[in-house]
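Sat 14:20. Reprocessing the chain from the morning session after the first attempt stalled halfway. Input below, unchanged.
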Amino acid sequence: MWEHVDHKANGNRSDYLRSLVDRDMSEENKWTNQSCLGYTIAAATQLGFSPEQIELLIGAMYDQLDTLTVTEAREIHNKFQH
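Finished this time. Tokens:
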């Protein structure tokens, strides 16, 4: 692993590792409620939901995003897993 880091770091591990952290913490990689809703809309569209059904789903999603903690949502997901 360190050989790879050294190769990419051009002699400066600290700068390289900092650049990786900055990259992963960028706005592009930040999880938001809006990105969650985007995934939901994409999945509903893929399944053939009508615009009205998607609106109902998004409304319910907003209710849950305002009500549940991330931990509670993760627990619900884990219980649902088959």
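The chain has a mean pLDDT of 86.
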